[in-house]
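Re: the request from the purification team.
They wanted to know what the chain is likely to look like in 3D before they choose a buffer screen. I agreed to run a prediction and write the result into the notebook, where they can find it.
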Amino acid sequence: MKSIAIPLNPHALFSRHALQHHLPVWKPKSLRQSRSTGSEIAREALDRIGALYDIERGIVGRPADIRLAARQKHSQPKVEALRAWAELQLTRIPGKGDLAKAFRYGLSRWPAFCLFLEDGRVAIDNNPAERALRPIGIGRKNWLFAGADSGAETLARAMTIIETAKMNGLDPQAYLADVLDRIHDHKNNRLDELLPWNWTPAGSAQAEAA
């Protein structure tokens, strides 16, 4: 299954609010504070989210169609129940409290959260993308000045290619060196052969052709 590193996807709406490796639907600070005061509602929210991750652990590495079938059979009813339960809790808790804010935050982003139920290729969260962006965040002070908008866009493209190569188990330096060496005389209608999830080193490709 191909892996693509992209600068932003729908799950990025939640990623900065992840809580204890659970699905990042709710604002963590609010849930954590509410749970620390003994809130049964916050505890149940985390338990319901954890149940979705239990399902995901059972289908890790499986083909997209199998993941999708399992999610539609097991996860979708739990997701629908979670939404109905969360909406009900909003009628029972103080509207201006932190817990209510956390619930409204999650419910307002529901379509993006549910994307994993519609496409078996999509992860339940975007933690891999967040990890891919971490080196960029660490080095951002060195990259404050790209010279121009076009330079920043070029850097973004380059980092996307590098991280996509990593996600597909490739050495980015070896991959880029090979592609840059071959691309000038590679047939336009076969450029897809040079994509990270299709790529084979020049020597291997020649041996297969022979």
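For the purification team: Confidence is low (pLDDT under 50) at residues 4-30, 32-36.
Please add any questions underneath this entry.
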